[in-house]
Amino acid sequence: MGKKGDLSNFERGMVVGARRAGLSISQSTQLLGFSRTTISRVYKEWCAKGKTSSMRQSCGRKCLVDARGQRRMGRLIQADRRATLTEIATRYNRGMQQSICEATTRTTLKWMGYNSRRPHRVPLISTTNRKKRLQFARAHQNWTVEDWKNVAWSDESRFLLRHSNGRVRIWRKQNEIMDPSCLVTTVQAGGGGVMVWGMFSWHTLGPLVPIGHRLNATAYLSIVSDHVHPFMTTMYPSSDGYFQQDNAPCHKARIISNWFLEHDNEFTVLKWPPQSPDLNPKQHLWDVVERELRALDVHPTNLHQLQDAILSIWANISKECFQHLVESMPRRIKAVLKVKGGQTPY
């Protein structure tokens, strides 16, 4: 059977070599596996023009956006990552002799490696907090996975019954996920739905506690005494455990600090840098719960059903899942060191 598609320069040279060696068209076809028509056409082209290269790459419509135009379009993207296709095409056509449409703009951007993506959401990190993150990373850069196994991670999260789809999209290349112009900064804020507090360590999942009202210092003290204390003393009976919490106001209240001081002979509170959810693997467990909620065949229609669904999903998170997250801590620390305390992909 003959070869489909155009021949490479090497294959065309093989055809010419076979015919010049005295082989007939039939013999060349049997030897090389190309059709008789292809053998004849390639050899005739060589005899007439003395060439063995194909000219098919020069066929077809000429590209409307040349290399210079691509550089121009790249500058437009760099100047405004949130521009729509219409805006990019309009700005590109200004001062150009030949205008392009949105379809050509989309094709060109895709060829250049740009795709429309949702911006990666990261916390807004001040200069002071960036220094604190870097200090924390330097202090723990020699910690191994075995060291991180002694840490119990905690956090609160709120899950909503309904989600907004009004997300901003940007143009970026695959390797530009952490480019400052491709990020959307966020700040901690509340919302509707069900709020829960949970903790876990490399060894096991801890309790997940629904919070009926606003989490204040009094409510958090109950959580610490009723859930954190028994978990830490059970999992780390040798008093070598670390309890992690972020810097939420209720976590830093005087009654909470005094309680931890009274129990500092049982476990240690890990000094946590501000605005560092990327260092807390607990954040990724919340993502697991969120994805499972969205994947439910029957979505909760009230807060009671939502709470039951969250508790059920939490109880079924695999051990491999949360252990893998804890094992990522050395890599997270290296990532913070690499960006000198800035945002990381985690």
TrEMBL record:
Gene Ontology MF term list: DNA binding
Coiled coil regions, renumbered to chain: none
Annotated ranges, domain Transposase Tc1-like: 71-142
InterPro entries hit by this protein: Homeodomain-like_sf (IPR009057), RNaseH_sf (IPR036397), Tc1-like_DDE_dom (IPR038717), Transposase_5 (IPR052338), Transposase_Tc1-like (IPR002492), WH-like_DNA-bd_sf (IPR036388)
GO biological process, one term: DNA integration
Top-level taxon of the source organism: Eukaryota
Domain Tc1-like transposase DDE stretches: 193-295
Entry-linked Pfam families: DDE_3, HTH_Tnp_Tc3_2
PANTHER family linked: SI:DKEY-77F5.3, TRANSPOSABLE ELEMENT-RELATED
Protein name, UniProt field: Tc1-like transposase DDE domain-containing protein
Species this protein is from: Paramormyrops kingsleyae
